[in-house]
Amino acid sequence: MEVVQVLHMNGGVGETSYAKNSLLQQKVITMTKPITEEAITKLYCSKYPEEIAIADLGCSSGPNTFFLVSELLKVVDSVRQKIGQKSPEYQVFLNDLPGNDFNTIFRSLSIFQNKLRKQLGPGNGPCFFTGVPGSFYGRLFRKNSLHFVHSSYSLHWLSQVPQGLESNKRNIYMASTSPPDVLKAYYVQFQKDFSLFLKCRSEELVDGGRMVLTLIGRRSDDPSSKECCYFWELLAMALIDMLVEGLIEEEKLNSFNIPMYTPSPAEVKYEVVKEGSFNIDRLEVTEVTWNAYLDETDLSDAFKDGGYNVAKCMRAVAEPLLASYFGEEILDEVFRRYREIISDRLSKEKNEFVNVTVSLIKP
Question: pTM surpassing 0.85?
Fold first, then answer.
């Protein structure tokens, strides 16, 4: 599986699209907003730059893409008005892998820009947008050209499926039944990728530039703990049920593994210190419930079903990977079964995603 070619969220604005099923990710951006606001404020107040270049890495498509950008610009505009500074000009780079639905982003760009101008009012500097397709596990921008980098719910994705997972049979990710060599292979790939990411961004950021990164992670020292692997284990259960019924091939299932790693705060800190390009300003852990609609009001009957909500969210994320490997014909059935399994588990227990957020400075 060539991850760069097949890893992307479901495009468009249909019922299974990421745009329609990314409330969870928006809530995470909102939860980590104090850290992001603090970082962009410190950046602006350190030099009062006449222009600010911002990169959102793993921007995907849908409302979250512009939600993050608008929050950053509103913070800077509020600060500069209080101190009587002229507004900087903004350059915003929206990055994701080539399969991302950039068309939907740019079709809605003019609407967003008009809305932003009304929110900020007169005196706000122009804001220019550029799409940047490509892997962030490599250089994307000119040297010393960025002031602020943001990435939310993207860096847990690896550049490739780790090597040496042949013994991870009937698992699609790290699991309680995964052999130790599988856990090590995942960790080694994470170390390689995260270190390369930091090195590339250090070359692209100006001195004093800042970066805020949020990943799905874990509190536990165990990389196969339930808090970070359970949602994939339940999807594996649905696939195994289909295997037993002859709907998918065993060889296919045994060779399919998710290219993802959910680090602990200690692992993130260790890699940052070891790579050496950044200082850590803040490192925090938060949790968000699997069912993003749990506290929402005025829901339709369908969205009152936690299994329905979680399965739709996961489908928007995982469908392209599954379709590239097993074919599109299994998708409706596997996510129907996944919904039933999730509904059963949510009726018995509370499940949450653990988020690791790190705010970094290039000295």
Answer: yes
